[in-house]
Amino acid sequence: MINNILLQENHSSISEREVEIVHLLSMGYNSKEIGEMLFISEHTVNTHRRNMVRKLDLKNSYQLIVWAFKERILSL
């Protein structure tokens, strides 16, 4: 599911778990659904989302998904 080469190139940006979360967000899943899929709490998903937005200096999850496509972490 996740291209390891992309993770290595972007290792300083977001973690592998964060890549999983942004991928599921881009597919339209909410935090509760993502938590259930990854066997983590909804709160943990929200913490990952918040951390990604903060460390990438973005404003919201929408910008996070756009960033992931621009950085080729996600693709169509």
UniProtKB/TrEMBL annotation:
<dbReference type="InterPro" id="IPR036388">
    <property type="entry name" value="WH-like_DNA-bd_sf"/>
</dbReference>
<keyword id="KW-0804">Transcription</keyword>
<keyword id="KW-0805">Transcription regulation</keyword>
<dbReference type="Pfam" id="PF00196">
    <property type="entry name" value="GerE"/>
</dbReference>
<keyword id="KW-0238">DNA-binding</keyword>
<protein>
    <submittedName>
        <fullName>DNA-binding CsgD family transcriptional regulator</fullName>
    </submittedName>
</protein>
<feature type="domain" description="HTH luxR-type">
    <location>
        <begin position="7"/>
        <end position="72"/>
    </location>
</feature>
<dbReference type="GO" id="GO:0006355">
    <property type="term" value="P:regulation of DNA-templated transcription"/>
</dbReference>
<dbReference type="GO" id="GO:0003677">
    <property type="term" value="F:DNA binding"/>
</dbReference>
<dbReference type="InterPro" id="IPR000792">
    <property type="entry name" value="Tscrpt_reg_LuxR_C"/>
</dbReference>
<dbReference type="InterPro" id="IPR016032">
    <property type="entry name" value="Sig_transdc_resp-reg_C-effctor"/>
</dbReference>
